[in-house]
Amino acid sequence: MPVPHLRRTSLTSGFLFLSQLTTLQTMSDTHATLGRSSVDDSPGSGEDEIVEPEQGNVLLHIISQLRPGADLSRVVLPTFILEPRSMLERITNFMAHPETLLPMPTIDDPVERFVSVIKFYLSGWHIKPPGVKKPLNPILGETFTCYWDYPDGTRGYYVSEQTSHHPPKSSYFFMAPEHHIRIDGTLKPRSKFLGNSAASMMEGIAILRLLNRGQDKEKGERYIVTQPNMYARGILFGKMKYELGDHSYVRCPENNLVADIEFKTKGYFSGTYNAIGGTIKNEKTGEVLYELSGLWNGEMHIKDVHTHRKEVLFDATHARHSKPLARPISEQAERESQRLWEPTVKAILAQNHTAATDEKTKIEDRQRDEAAKRIDEGVEWQPRLFRAVHGGPGGQDEGEEDLDWIINAEVDSHDPQTATKQILAIAPILDCQKDCSQFQIPPHASKSSNSATPALPEQDTTANTAGAASFTGENTAAPVVERKDTETQEEEEFVDAEEKQ
User: Fold this and answer.
1) Could you give the count of Cα atoms lying within 13 Å of 468 in the half-sphere of its Cβ?
2) What total number of domains does the chain contain?
3) Contact of 161 with 385, CB cutoff 8 Å
4) Is this model's pTM higher than 0.85 or not?
5) Contact predicate 442/374, CB 8 Å
6) CA 498, CA 500: separation in Å to the nearest integer?
7) 45-73 confidence digits (pLDDT tens)
8) Separation of alpha carbons 265 and 208, rounded Å
């Protein structure tokens, strides 16, 4: 069957893989907070159905606000069910397994290369924190950057920004220049209350580009990726349980290949948790090439339809993901995720829910005040690091309209050294880089020419010079700063999502 229009879903692994879910959910997560090595291993898997002592109070809190079909983006959630990090950080799960990410561009056979993309896509869903939790909702203009140090001495870079608040949109950019890999994505969660369950319908897409492949030497070989929807079961009574559900797609238009992957939810009387099934086929001829099966938190298998050979595609049971590194909070700007949410995160980790609520409310009230000010002054807000997609026939971004926003920079597709310089000019990513943009909200002048509000300087749209960020490099006079990744020592440990037998 043909792949439906890809406005429905998006990614992170993997491909992540990895916006702000406004729903009760753990999401097969993905990564981070503030203090351990990026290669720390997760402990063994734990149960998803963890019931917090305060759950009864949470239910009363939620019930007082919900009606069937209600939009969860309007519901205020108690802080104990919050994951102590922003959704912009959580998206980095998409890139959490470099051992499945980096080999993809090296494979010559297009079908085998497509299979490697599917392996990468499926490798990150097992990463999750214990319990059923949701990340902090990013505020408009919030940014998060980080990087990975790979064993071969190369790096991967990640830049993200909350490009819309209502509806929520989290836009992100990832690139590993030496490996010819680029990912652009926008995550657009839409949440619903479904009685004893909460659902997050994961709209948006991500586009993975292998820049050393394909006929278009600038855009490379593109893989359009969506992601499954996410469900939190038992939010009113019974044990809380996190599930992935519904169909997601990976599509390579240039090679006429498509994967239809179903994340299966457990029925009332039959089925099992965390199961997947699916096919890889030639979209042009309709020929099915492979069948997929298994558990997204355990062994996943691929079967060659013609030879009937079945083998393990990826085993998540004991897989270890690589956490990204972020600059110390002391070097971060006011609107960067970790600095912005630091007081809230500290209170969550200390289980001081009153303080967490107070700190979270301060940020949300500030966002409302900023929005009111923009309305009063006739200011139209625009993202700082991302620009609107120029789609349509003949457009610069033709075929990528569902991204909505894309990184506002020219990044060389062929010269890794040049690309690295351009990426580091977009925003501070590495230790000792400085943000020179002095970004504030609102960032643009009033639409009225008579406005008394002066325009703030806009960022260089090419981002090919160090106008936005400067890097001290090897300067020995620079202070030595200990590297930090995005996870704190004090935070509850992330676990692989294998079910206990």
Assistant:
1) 22
2) 1
3) yes
4) no
5) yes
6) 6
7) 334 444 455 554 456 666 666 666 666 65
8) 27
DSSP β-bridge partners for residue 300: 294, 314
How far is residue 84's CA from residue 267's CA, in Å, rounded to a whole number? 31
Report if residue 459 sits inside a domain. no
Q: Is residue 39 assigned to a domain? A: yes
CATH code of the domain covering residue 110: 2.40.160.120
**178 φ, ψ (degrees, to nearest 5):** -65, -20
Residue 66 lies inside a defined structural domain of this protein: yes
- 298 Cβ neighbours under 8 A, 6+ residues apart: 126, 274, 315, 316, 317, 498
Residue 471 lies in a domain: no
Which domain does 43 fall in, by range? 1-447+485-491
Distance, CA of 454 to CA of 444 (rounded, Å): 8
pLDDT-wise least confident of 57-71, 185-199, 290-304, 369-383: 57-71
- d(CA 436, CA 333) in angstroms, rounded, equals 10
Pick from 16-30, 200-214, 351-365, 412-426: least confident: 16-30
What six digits make up the tokens of 417? 């050294």
CB 274 within 8 A of CB 297: yes
Are the CB atoms for 381 and 448 separated by under 8 Å? Answer: no
Maximum mean pLDDT: which of 226-235, 264-273, 387-396: 387-396
Contact 211, 17 (CB under 8 A): no
The two three-digit tokens of residue 73, written as one number = 């983006």
3-state secondary structure of 249: strand
Neighbours of 127 (CB within 10 A): 34
Q: What angle do CA 58, 59, 63 make, to 5 degrees?
A: 120
Q: Residue 217: what residue type? A: K
Mean of per-residue pLDDT scores for the chain = 79
Alpha-helical runs (H) found in 388-443: 416-426
Local confidence band at 314 (pLDDT 50, 70, 90 cut-offs) = very high
DSSP-assigned letter for residue 99? H
* Mutual angle of helices 342-349 and 353-377, in 10-degree steps: 160
Cα dist from 386 to 95, 122, 169, 422, 427, whole Å: 20, 27, 12, 14, 11
Backbone dihedral angles phi then psi of residue 375, each to the nearest 5 degrees:
-65, -45
Flag whether pLDDT at 249 surpasses 50: yes
Name residue, tokens 């037998």: 501
